[in-house]
Fold:
Amino acid sequence: MRRDRERIINILEAPDSLMQSLQGCTRTDFFSSDLIYSASACKLTIVGEAAARISTEMKDRHPQIEWRKVIGLRNFLVHQYFGVDLAMVWEVATADVPPLRDSFAAMLLAEFPG
Structure:
């Protein structure tokens, strides 16, 4: 269980960093900057990698998180790097990450209060 707590914290740090780096960034900025895209892809990969290492018991207690999609995105980013659609990464980073981060924050509080 302690490892799950550490993994959830890792998961929370990545979206926090991602959202901070994208603050004020437009879609045009994102599409024209390999640095911004690469940093975003890296943070999404970290989320997926940490999620993959969460215990099965913890995942079973939190079915509201789409574990397969989170982990699958990591696998896609790592293995299909040159075929990744920038628009998809932008959409995930800007629309999906904030509520996902909130779900993990709620999970951390529920599982490890105080």
Q: What stands out?
A: The helical segments are 2-22, 27-32, 34-52, 56-61, 67-79, 86-111. DSSP finds six helices and no strands in the chain. Residues 2-111 form one domain.
